[in-house]
Design a protein that fits this description.
Blueprint (H helix, E strand, L loop, with lengths): L12 H25 L2 H13 L5 H20 L12 H9 L6 H15 L5 H19 L5 H7 L13 H4 L1 H18 L6 H12 L14 H15 L5 H8 L3 H4 L2 H9 L1
Helix pairs in contact: 2-3, 2-4, 4-6, 5-6, 10-11
Length: 270
């Protein structure tokens, strides 16, 4: 505040000192709140992600920020460190790891190598970037298993088709399907592959899961490869300039997903 208030009335000296003290207290509170809500390395990683995306996607960046901050807090509570002190690759590693959520490790290797080539890194430097990225990625997978559906299905039987289907699969796995769809949207965005229309995905998933025996589901199978196969067939239609093998490789789908594509394609074409 200046020497006068909004009405032009002079402010006594003792009042100005009081306002100054209150202002400094508020600045300290704001600084503490910002430090709790964000992190310098996380913000650096988000800037890298923003530059790597070929179109603005602030919603995706905000989800990546929340993921990193949540895992950072979880690591601190467990006595581990997400970011290595003294490493200059913390930001790059966090960005590359976030951009590979929902994809396979081989896809992350390719992304790291591509980023190293883009920066012109040579010698032992790319290996240091890869090592730091894999460390961060492993902690993301360990402390936030909901972002890796294949890891989640191994730890829980909820994403495995039951032998006796008494409830429609779409209803039984509604939570897992929402998680899968969110991860796949992110992996498609990071791979710069056009995602199919939301209505087409919903209709196709509903149609396939309403008749599980037609695609060979009799019980005990993991459902996520089937969902990936549905998405792969639709993505092949939405990206005529790309072949299905390229989409599968860039997005990071497993070979087990491609085992269902022919059956899914035949069912959806009927």
């Amino acid at each position: 505040m200046d020497f006068c208030d909004g009405l032009g009335i002079p402010i006594p000296k003792n009042q100005r000192r009081r306002y100054d003290r209150l202002g400094k207290i508020q600045e300290n509170l704001d600084r503490r709140k910002r430090s709790e809500e964000t992190n310098r390395v996380v913000e650096n990683a988000m800037e890298i992600v923003r530059k790597e995306l070929h179109y603005p996607n602030e919603e995706l960046i905000e989800r990546s920020r929340r993921l990193l901050m949540g895992v950072l807090t979880s690591c601190q509570n467990s006595g581990t460190a997400l970011f290595k002190t003294g490493s200059k690759w913390n930001g790059e590693a966090a960005a590359l790891a976030c951009m590979n959520i929902g994809s396979r490790k081989e896809s992350l290797y390719r992304r790291i190598d591509g980023y190293a080539n883009k920066l012109g890194l040579t010698g032992k430097v790319p290996r240091g970037l890869r090592r730091r990225t894999m460390d961060v990625w492993a902690l993301l997978m360990l402390h936030d298993t909901s972002n890796d559906g294949y890891k989640w299905k191994r730890e829980s039987p909820r994403f495995v088709v039951p032998h006796k289907i008494s409830v429609p699969l779409l209803e039984l796995f509604s939570e897992g399907i929402r998680c899968w769809l969110s991860r796949r949207r992110d992996s498609f965005a990071m791979a710069r592959v056009r995602f199919p229309a939301g209505g087409d995905v919903d209709d196709s998933v509903s149609r396939v899961l309403s008749d599980p025996h037609s695609i060979g589901l009799s019980g005990g199978e993991h459902l996520e490869p089937v969902l990936d196969a549905i998405l792969l067939v639709l993505a092949d239609r939405a990206n005529p300039e790309l072949d299905m093998a390229h989409i599968s490789k860039e997005v990071g789908m497993s070979a087990s997903a491609r085992n269902y594509t022919r059956r899914v394609k035949n069912l959806l074409s009927e």
